[in-house]
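Thread: DUF4412 domain-containing protein, structure

OP (GT): Posting the sequence first so everyone is looking at the same thing. Length is 264 residues per the record. Can we get the structure tokens written out before standup tomorrow? I want them in the notebook alongside the other entries.
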Amino acid sequence: MLVMEPMRRTAALMLTLVGMCAVLGTGPLAAQSSDHPSLRAETKIYFDGRKPALVGETLTLFDTGIAYDIQLPEKSQITVFDIPRSRVVLLDATTQQRTTIGCDDLVRYMTALRQQALETGKADAIGVSTQPISDPQTGVVQAGFPGFLYIAETQAASQPGLSKIYNDFTGWATRLNMYQNPRGAPFARLALNEQMSASEVLPSKITLRATVGDQTETLRSEHQFSPMLSVQDRALISQIGGMLVSFQDVPADQFRTPRVAQNE
């Protein structure tokens, strides 16, 4: 594992933890499809140092099989996970630009990363074979390897299918973040997501502890969910739909890429 300066280590950790949510829904609730359950999640990430600080916040809306991940508070950086169409679209409302990354590209990248780690003897160092541990009595799920440990406190999903759509989303977010800027512990995070999905639970809090030498840094994410979208949420989705059509399409290497707020 590379030794990083404290500021850079903190940034890398932030890019490895998934979100914490505080439900904002106000106003009348709109209907949802039974085939594609709707979900509203808000993510807040804190750096737990001597003075805990909020370092990331997102609102994620799930509708008709698509996840709209909006960075708060400005709402200018948006990532659309359109998995049914095998694509992830990044939007920048400030520059009015968009770029598209294929899901196949993300899968191929992670496969190549895994293979390279196995061939170079670094598989253990990046947690390629991480096996999660789940405690059914407490609902706590852990996944980690020397130097990295995820601890997820979980809650039962209020409706069937919600755990899968959320944990699938965080899996794609982990792959995207790694593809854009390789760092963190993606395989441990993917293992954590898969275990929560298999257990049909959602996270209420995820803690990531990363140790380099004699220094340990901690990121904490807190999550709340609503199984319904408000009228305001659907208006925001409609607005994003307009951005997908009207924004200028640019190559990925020319796009100012945001990272999805998560502790990967």
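GT: Both are above now. Quick notes for whoever picks this up: Helices lie at 6-14, 103-119, 162-180, 186-198, 231-246. The chain has five helices and twelve strands.
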